[in-house]
Amino acid sequence: MKKTSSFKLQLLTAFACFQILFISLGNAERSETRILLTSNGTLREKHGENYCAMYDICGSRSDGKVLNCPFGSPSVKPDDLLSAKIQSLCPTISGSICCTETQFDTLRSQVQQAIPFLVGCPACLRNFLNLFCELTCSPNQSQFINVTSISQIKNNSTVGGIDYYITDTFGEGLFNSCKDVKFGTANSKAIDFVGNGAKNFKELFAFIGQEAAPKLPGSPYAINFRSDADVSTGMKPMNVSTYSCGDTSLGCSCGDCPSSPVCSGSAPQPLHENGSCSVRIGSLQAKCIEFSLAIVYILLASLFLWWGLFYKRKERSPTLRPKASTNVTNGGPVQLVHGIKDENISMQDTPHITSGVQLSVVQGLMAKKFRLYGTWVARHPILVLCLSLAVVILLGLGLIRFKVETRPEKLWVGHGSRAAEEKKYFDSHLAPFYRIEQLILATKPRGSHEKPPTIVTDENINLLFEIQAKVDGIRANYAGSLVSLTDICMKPLGEACATQSILQYFKMDPKNLVDFGGVDHAEYCFQHYSSDVNCMSAFKGPLEPSTTLGGFSGNNYSEASAFIVTYPVNNAIDKESNETKKAVAWEKAFIKLVEDELLPMVKSKNLTLSYSSESSIEEELKRESNADAITVLISYLVMFAYISLTLGDTPRFSFFYISTKVLLGLSGVVLVMLSVIASVGFFSAIGVKSTLIIMEVIPFLVLAVGVDNMCILVHAVKRQQVELPLEGRISNALAEVGPSITLASLSEVLAFAVGSFIPMPACRVFSMFAALAILLDFLLQVTAFVALIALDFRRAEDHRVDCFPCIKIPNSHADTDQGSDQRRSGLLTRYMKEVHAPILGVWWVKLVVISVFAALSLASIALCTRIQPGLEQQIVLPRDSYLQGYFNNVSEYLRIGPPLYFVVKNYNYSSESRQTNQLCSINNCDSNSLLNEISKASLVPKSSYIAKPAASWLDDFLVWVSPEAFGCCRKFTNQTYCPPDDQPPCCTSSDGSCSVNGVCKDCATCFRHSDLQNDRPTTTQFKEKLPWFLNALPSANCAKGGHGAYTNSLELNGFEDGVIRASSFRTYHTPLNKQVDFVNSMRAAREFSSRLSKSLKIEIFPYSVFYMFFEQYLDIWKTALISLAVAICAVFVVCMIITCSIWSSGIIVVVLMMILVDLLGVMAVLNIQLNAVSVVNLVMSVGISVEFCVHITHAFLVSSGDRDQRTKEALSTMGASVFSGITLTKLVGVIVLCFSRTEIFVVYYFQMYLALVLLGFLHGLIFLPVVLSIVGPPSRRILVEQKDDKKSSASPSS
Question: Can you give the pTM of this predicted structure?
Answer without folding.
Answer: 0.76
